[in-house]
Specification:
56% of the residues lie in helices and 17% in strands. It is built from five helices and three strands. It has a three-stranded antiparallel beta sheet. The longest helix is centred in the last third of the chain and has 21 residues.
């Protein structure tokens, strides 16, 4: 994101990988609670297992989250964490929305 955009209403600057409603909720939760266990994240963002998996894959493909599968005792556990690139993208996304909202006032 540029520091001084010529047009604060330019929606082309909004990151599509984050902007979907469920992905937005995922990124918001992970920004405060990274890493998160899959079931915890699913419950917090009110998603189904399949829907959450699909959206996590999109965020993983963008390089914004890292998914680690491991075992706790004999139980499988999936942990999701924001990457450095994901945290930067999240902060840039928020800054872009603030510019848009401020320009609309």
């Amino acid at each position: 994101m540029s520091d001084t955009p010529d047009n604060p209403f330019d929606h082309g600057e909004i990151d599509d990988a984050i902007h979907g409603r469920l992905r937005l909720g995922i990124m918001a939760y992970l920004s405060a609670a990274s890493p998160a266990i899959f079931g915890e994240l699913r419950d917090k963002v009110n998603a189904t297992d399949g829907n959450l998996s699909t959206h996590l894959r999109k965020l993983e493909d963008a390089g914004y989250v890292e998914i680690e599968k491991r075992f706790e005792g004999r139980r499988p556990q999936t942990r999701i964490r924001l990457t450095e690139a994901g945290r930067k993208a999240w902060l840039d996304y928020l800054a872009r929305l603030r510019l848009l909202l401020d320009a609309a006032e």
